[in-house]
Design brief:
Blueprint lengths: L4 H10 L3 H5 L18 H14 L4 E5 L7 H16 L4 E5 L3 H4 L5 E5 L2 E6 L1 H5 L5 H9 L1 H12 L2 H6 L4 H7 L10 H26 L3 H31 L9 H6 L2 H10 L1
Parallel strand pairs: 1-2
Antiparallel strand pairs: 3-4
Helix pairs in contact: 1-3, 3-4, 8-11, 12-14
């Protein structure tokens, strides 16, 4: 409450929030609704970041700051985070599973099972083939993802929307979502998704290659479990048919024995 207008604007500029706030009808005095209902998740994140910057903390802790955002909003918020991390006003600690969030950090620590396994810059950690960070980058396909997102960021339709307020975007509704990206962007995104899926499948096969025996055993068990219910159906049909015979045509021992295979199947597979 004691901050001046100039200080608020400086904090919002650092958080990449000043431009869209200035485009609102009442600028910094605009009513954004209950719990910010009339602004997007990305704009909420940038406003929250600006508030944190305004307090000038010695340590700024960001926990999954971009996890709930779409790709476009993530890029804008990420640019704001890069601005904050590059400033020397405070120490910024970022906790993230998205590697693009921490790529430009001065130090990246890879924590596994509660212990620091690797530490260094992005470039230093990428020089360690098959290191933990290197493998995470390959799994998330960071380079391909950034290429796609860069093309999305530079698309003509997005440039056209930069001058709009998010309130206007919300009024347009979901019907405009299909026209958000160009055909080339859609093709690039689809291609990137296919590469990521293939890379994940290859990774899964490499992890499971030494466990093929267990997979074979599990497949046989799944097959037997699937046969259990049809077997019970056949037996019950046989029982109903037998009720109409005045004299049971089969030995009783044989009739009882028909229950043993599905019973054993149920015992083993369930």
């Amino acid at each position: 409450p004691s901050a001046s207008v100039a200080e608020m604007e400086d904090a919002c500029k650092l958080a990449n929030a000043h431009d869209f706030i200035s485009s609102f009808p009442d600028k910094y005095d605009t009513n954004v609704g209950s719990q910010g209902a009339q602004i997007s998740g990305g704009q909420k994140q940038r406003i929250a970041l600006a508030r944190a910057i305004l307090k000038r903390p010695k340590i700024l802790l960001l926990d999954e700051a971009t996890s709930a955002l779409d790709s476009e909003s993530e890029q804008i918020v990420q640019a704001a985070l890069d601005n904050v991390m590059s400033s020397r006003h405070q120490t910024t600690i970022v906790i993230a599973h998205r590697l693009s969030t921490v790529r430009h950090a001065s130090r990246i620590a890879v924590i596994d099972s509660g212990r620091v396994r690797e530490i260094g810059t992005h470039e230093e950690l990428m020089e360690k083939p098959n290191g933990k960070y290197w493998r995470l980058v390959q799994l998330q396909d960071l380079h391909g993802k950034e290429h796609v997102l860069d093309s999305v960021t530079d698309s003509p339709k997005k440039k056209k929307k930069k001058g709009k307020t998010l309130i206007d975007d919300l009024e347009e509704g979901e019907t405009d979502k299909d026209d958000k990206f160009d055909d080339d962007d859609d093709a690039s995104t689809s291609s990137a998704d296919e590469r990521i899926a293939k890379k994940h499948a290859k990774r899964a096969r490499s992890l499971a290659k030494n466990e093929w025996g267990l997979f074979l055993l599990g497949s046989i068990g799944a097959l037997l479990a699937g046969l259990m219910f049809p077997a019970w159906g056949i037996i019950f049909a046989f029982m109903l048919e037998a009720l109409y015979y005045p004299i049971f045509p089969c030995p009783y021992d044989f009739a009882l024995a028909t229950f043993l295979p599905p019973g054993f199947d149920s015992l083993v597979c369930d």
